[in-house]
């Protein structure tokens, strides 16, 4: 199996047979775990046990094929980050794997991208991997309802809950720290807030936006949506077709483009971007002060950089919309080579390695276009 079409037509057993010789699976097979929490042995053994438990779930027959496939790939990558993160605590002698979920998410994203998996599917799996360990520890949160409500806009709680059950059952633990009652509590809180099978229903887009910025005074508050203007952030790697998308979909908007500013200032993509960013911020402010809709065209493939721009636009009361473009890699590389100011491949590879596609927690509206 070398393509996503092959994967979609495969059985669970076929997928495991495909995965086992992959470098990331072999690394898991060679990675030991703490015997107190994982007496079954290495990480790959645990992974296969989790897949088996997924198929035994009472909920399994109720899931459509696509959801089952999401769960299978969540299982494959949920602990795939352990080989790169496993350490032995010098004080306790216990084996730990700090931040392995983040590493597993990045690895899973890369593998699914190489297989030709669709962008929305890939990111749903990536986020399930990233947050797979949250349900057992809900009682440790100061505001459990907020935890569940917030994640309902990032993952499907039906799938997260089902996976947590399989992950808990797919191990031999001398010290069970993942009681299923805690998982049932996660489901109960989600159901109480009507977000188990759908994202939580905020009063409006602005209420959701303020919630994720920790600026919503109450879930029952309905803020006014009297935006001063609309700021459209068009993001994606160099060569994804951001200019083309803007010309086709926002032809009348003035555009603040980092590429254009670099050209005007004669600054290379690998050079110091300080003056470029400063000029872009001032151009954005001019539109914001004039209450004029505009588009902002920049790479912005990392959450940190997008947040800085969102903070600026929110300060002026704009409605913020993010459009993320990611065609197949071969298309990106080809279009980048055809650019007048081509981005060096080493820069493109670095951006690809740090890629963080946006989620619906970041703006009033987010669209992923693959």
Describe the structure.
A five-stranded parallel sheet has the order 4-5-3-6-7, with helices on both faces. The radius of gyration is 22 Å and the shape is globular. The protein folds into two domains: 4-192, Hypothetical protein af1432 (Orthogonal Bundle), CATH 1.10.3210; 230-369, P-loop containing nucleotide triphosphate hydrolases (Rossmann fold), CATH 3.40.50. It has helices at 4-9, 12-19, 23-29, 43-56, 65-78, 82-85, 100-115, 119-130, 144-151, 157-169, 180-192, 205-212, 242-249, 258-265, 274-289, 303-315, 329-337, 345-353; strands spanning 87-88, 95-96, 230-235, 255-257, 294-297, 319-325, 365-369. The protein is an alpha/beta fold and 370 residues long. It is built from 18 helices and seven strands. Helix 4 (43-56) packs across helix 10.
Itemize the secondary structure elements and their pairings.
Layout: H1 4-9, H2 12-19, H3 23-29, H4 43-56, H5 65-78, H6 82-85, E1 87-88, E2 95-96, H7 100-115, H8 119-130, H9 144-151, H10 157-169, H11 180-192, H12 205-212, E3 230-235, H13 242-249, E4 255-257, H14 258-265, H15 274-289, E5 294-297, H16 303-315, E6 319-325, H17 329-337, H18 345-353, E7 365-369
Parallel strand pairs: 3-5, 3-6, 4-5, 6-7
Antiparallel strand pairs: 1-2
Helix pairs in contact: 4-5, 4-10, 5-7, 5-8, 5-10, 7-8, 10-11, 14-15
């Amino acid at each position: 199996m070398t393509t996503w079409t092959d994967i979609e037509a495969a059985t669970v057993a076929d997928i495991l047979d495909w995965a086992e010789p992959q470098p990331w699976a072999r690394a898991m097979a060679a990675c030991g775990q703490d015997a107190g929490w994982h007496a079954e042995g290495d990480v790959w053994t645990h992974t296969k046990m989790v897949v088996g438990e997924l198929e035994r779930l009472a909920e399994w027959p109720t899931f459509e094929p696509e959801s089952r496939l999401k769960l299978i790939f969540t299982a494959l990558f949920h602990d795939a980050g352990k080989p790169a993160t496993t350490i032995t605590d010098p004080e306790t002698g216990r084996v730990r794997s700090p931040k392995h979920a983040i590493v597993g998410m990045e690895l899973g994203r890369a593998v699914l991208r190489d297989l030709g998996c669709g962008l929305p599917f890939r990111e749903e799996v990536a986020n399930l991997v990233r947050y797979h360990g949250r349900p057992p520890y809900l009682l440790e949160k100061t505001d459990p309802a907020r935890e569940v409500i917030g994640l309902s806009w990032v993952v499907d709680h039906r799938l997260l809950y089902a996976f947590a059950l399989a992950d808990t059952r797919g191990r031999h633990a001398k010290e069970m720290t993942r009681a299923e009652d805690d998982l049932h509590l996660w489901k109960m809180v989600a159901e109480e807030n009507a977000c188990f099978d759908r994202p939580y229903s905020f009063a409006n887009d602005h209420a959701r936006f303020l919630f994720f910025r920790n600026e919503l005074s109450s879930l029952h508050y309905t803020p006014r949506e009297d935006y001063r203007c609309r700021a459209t952030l068009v993001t994606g790697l160099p060569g994804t077709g951001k200019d083309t998308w803007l010309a086709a979909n926002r032809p009348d908007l003035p555009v603040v483009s980092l590429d254009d500013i670099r050209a005007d200032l004669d600054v290379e993509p690998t050079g110091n971007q300080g003056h470029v960013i400063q000029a872009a911020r001032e151009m954005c402010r001019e539109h914001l002060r004039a209450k004029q809709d505009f588009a902002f065209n920049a790479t912005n493939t990392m959450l940190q950089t997008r947040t800085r721009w969102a903070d600026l636009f929110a300060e002026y009361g704009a409605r913020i919309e993010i459009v993320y473009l990611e065609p197949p890699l071969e298309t990106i590389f080809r279009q980048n080579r055809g650019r007048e100011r081509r981005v060096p491949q080493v820069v493109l590879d670095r951006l690809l390695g740090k890629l963080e596609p946006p989620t619906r927690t970041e703006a009033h509206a987010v669209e992923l276009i693959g």
